[in-house]
């Protein structure tokens, strides 16, 4: 499989999922900022691992993550509506919490000590 093709599809899915989360934020996650940090596709483009950074001072990220997983079918459908003319098949989505920001903050704090 062409690596450039996979990278283009990853960028497309990342961009479109970001737009979906921005537009649908008020419907199921009011006051929450969801950032799609990384999308990794399988070689056959049938499975996508989506890493999310979640920001909401009132709700724990794990609770928001559970809401996102509960609405996975609706999110995939919205993605399909946006990219159906650009890809052959819509990949299955698996969401993961990206904690790299918190990890880097922790490392910086440890280095300051």
How does this model look, in words?
This protein has one domain (3-112): 2-Layer Sandwich (GMP Synthetase, Chain A, domain 3), CATH 3.30.300. 53% of the residues lie in helices and 21% in strands. Strand 1 and strand 2 (47-55) form a beta hairpin. Helix 1 (3-23) crosses helix 4. With 113 residues, it is of the alpha+beta class. It contains five helices and three strands, in the order ααββααβα. The chain has helices at residues 3-23, 25-28, 61-70, 72-83, 100-112, and strands spanning 33-41, 47-55, 92-97. It is globular. Strands 1-2-3 form a three-stranded mixed β-sheet.
Strand order of the largest sheet: 1-2-3
Helix content: 40-55%
- Unreliable segments of 5+ consecutive residues: none
Distance between the termini: 47 Å
Largest sheet: 3 strands, mixed
Any key phrases for this structure?
3 strands, 113 residues, alpha+beta, GMP Synthetase, Chain A, domain 3
């Amino acid at each position: 499989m062409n690596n450039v093709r996979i990278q283009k599809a990853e960028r497309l899915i990342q961009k479109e999922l970001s737009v979906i989360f921005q537009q649908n934020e008020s419907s199921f996650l009011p006051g929450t900022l969801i950032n799609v940090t990384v999308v990794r596709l399988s070689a056959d483009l049938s499975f996508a691992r989506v890493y999310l950074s979640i920001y909401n001072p009132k709700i724990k990220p794990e609770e928001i993550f559970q809401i996102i997983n509960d609405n996975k079918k609706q999110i995939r459908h919205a993605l399909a509506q946006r990219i159906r003319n650009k890809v052959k098949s819509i990949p299955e989505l698996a969401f993961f919490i990206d904690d790299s920001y918190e990890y880097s903050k922790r490392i910086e704090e440890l280095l300051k000590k």
